[in-house]
Each structure stands twice: as structure tokens, then as C-alpha cells.
Amino acid sequence: MTLPDVTLGREPYELTTTALGYGAMSLAGAYGPISDEAAIALLHDVYDRGVTFLDTANIYGLGVSETILGTFLRGRRHEFMVATKAGIDPSGEAGKRRQNGKPEHLREQIELSLRRLGTDYVDLYYLHRPDPEVPIEESVGPLGELVEAGKVRSIGLSEVTAEEIRRAHQVHPVTAVQSEWSVFARDVERYVLPTVAELGIGFVAFSPVGRGILTDHFDAAGLAEGDTRRKFPWFSPENLTHNDAVAAQLRQAAAGLGIPAAGLALAWLYKKAARIGADLATIPGTRYTSHMDELLRGVDFELDVDAEAQLDSLADQVHGDRSFDPMWVSGGREGLLPR
Question: Where's the NADP-dependent oxidoreductase domain (predicted)?
Fold first, then answer.
């Protein structure tokens, strides 16, 4: 199929890519095992469906995701927009790592990422999280130097506040801001999204189907022991049954509209972004081609006003925060999530 394009950022650092991308954290086993062979086959299926925006990070499987993408990209690198990230220290246990926005760390990590990806540049390089011990200006400056060196085409920021966006944008134009946004997670609508719309910065929504809970396939009883979601309050034993029941309202609405739940969740995001005036790309991740097909249904689905209003009411019913540490995400630092 032919996917609509979206332009993130403004000249001379704008990037035009597919409005639906692929979040490659799933290739590193965050939500369950997947073999390298199955991962490569999945990427071919994603490509066959017209998706050319690939998003990864150095810490996804400590390089596993980037390495798999590097294998897949051989001979076709020019057909894709590739984004990766640095700014979280790879050492330590997942969920307990620290931010690292020091210039030397960012310079070191881009070299490692380029090697794993098998390329001499990335299209979009994010500061994965602001470092509370390093002013954001001191992290963004070196990212701009990587653009000048030709190793990076443009820079992005992940989970930053509106104030941090403005400060960073004065040092070097920011092409994209990436944060969690979904029917369940809406704090970015207060400050972050109006700011990127004002400044002409693109927005990239990760976890747009709530780490799977906003799909028809979610099994509350089936989360494996090593599943990353167990670290998040939405999925804690005291919250999960309730939140699954809230998500069931979306599933029921989707069934009534004749669209998969995941597709409806994406359609709601695109409708909201258009209302706000933000240029949106979504980067859901999955290990299954059939799930990608369900997501694709939402790209051009026309969401009516009644269905939009019904989904609008769900976030207030959710129990728990979207992050294991509210200060780890923009909404926590903006006082929108309880500490």
C-alpha cells in the first residue's frame, strides 16, 4: 500500500518519511523472544507494506536491535529513514539505568551505532533522555556538531518538557521530539505538543497502542516473567485488571466500527495531531506481520466525532502512571504525573 508521508522539522533539517514507522525495540526481545531470522523476515514484511521509517536505540538489547537492522539494511540503506538514540547509560539493569548526556558519551555512542547499523550516517539522532546533571544545551551542542560532521542528518529529543525543547531549539534546530502518546497516555497534549506545533518540530509517538494493551491480542494473564511491561505501573498486579477493562471499551468500540483496536488507537492519534496542528509519525513495534496489518488500518481511517469523544474519556479512567519513574518522562517533570 502507499502510506501518507509526513515532514518532520523545517529546512534545512527537515525529514520526509512515512507517517507510520516501525519501532524496533521489539526486535531485541523486550516483549518476548524473536529469532534473528524471524526479525529479518518481519522487516521485509514491514518494507513490503510501504513502511520506510525505522526507529531504534543503542540500548535496545544493548545493540541487538541496531545489529539486526544493520543486517537488513545492506544494499537498501538509501530507501529508509533511520533513527537511533543515545543518552541512557547502557550499563546497569533495564529500568534502573541512568541518563548520560555528556558530550563524550554521545560522540562515543554514535560511532558504535553506525558500526552496528552498517552505515556512515543516521537520518535522525535523538538524545534519549535529558541528563539532570548536564544542561540540555551541553548535550544538544555536540549533536549539532555531528550534523556538521555528516554523521547525522538531523537531531531529535525524547521525553523532554516544553521548556527543554525551547532551550535546545535555540542551540540547534530540533527536527523531531519523541514521547509516549496514546489513548491512555495524554500528558504531552498539555505543553509538549503545542510547543512542537508552534516551533515547526515534528512529533514521533512511541507506544501508540499502550505497549499492547490497546490491541485485540492483549492477554493480561499471559505476560511472561521477563516481559518489560512488568516494570510499568499500568501492568502491575494492582492495576492491570482494571486497566484491561478500560482498554476493553476501546476494543468494543473498534469492533463496532469494523476496525482492529490497534488501528482505532492510531486513527485517534492522527485525528488529535491534526486538531493540534502537529506533524505526526507513529512508531509502533510488533513481532508479528498480522499485527502490523492491523496498525496499518488506522493510518487513513476516518474517525467520527462520537467515537473520538468516547476514546477521549478513557485516559481519566486509567490507574497508575505511564512510567516507572515520573521524573524519567516529560509529564512527570512538568508536574502532570503524580510523584
Answer: 20-315
Domains of the chain and CATH, by start: 5-333 (3.20.20.100)
What average pLDDT score do residues 131-135 get?
97
Span of 129-138, 215-224, 267-276, 326-335 with lowest mean pLDDT: 215-224
* Predicted confidence (pLDDT) per residue in 23-76, tens digit: 999 999 888 899 999 999 999 999 999 999 999 999 999 999 999 999 999 999
User: Could you give the percent of the chain with pLDDT greater than 70?
Assistant: 98
Burial class (CB in 10 A: 0-12, 13-18, 19+), 118: middle
Q: How far is CA 327 from CA 91, 181, 228, 319, 332, in A?
A: 20, 16, 19, 18, 5
> Cβ distance 154 to 81 under 8 Å?
no
CA distances to 38, 68, 212 from 41, rounded to whole Å, are: 5, 11, 21
Residues 6+ positions from 100 with CB-CB distance below 8 Å? 87, 88, 89, 131
Answer whether the bond into residue 260 is a cis peptide, omega within 30°.
no
Residue 339 has pLDDT above 60, yes or no: no
88 CB burial (10 A radius; 0-12, 13-18, 19+): buried
Active site residues: 60
pTM of the model: 0.96
Task: Give the length of the chain.
Answer: 339
Would you say the C-alpha torsion 285, 290, 294, 296 has a positive or negative sign? positive
Q: State the Cα torsion 243-245-246-251 to the nearest 10°.
A: 120
Q: Are strands 15-18 and 5-8 parallel, antiparallel or unpaired?
A: antiparallel
Cα–Cα dist 86/65, whole Å: 14
Q: What is the CA radius of gyration of the chain?
A: 18
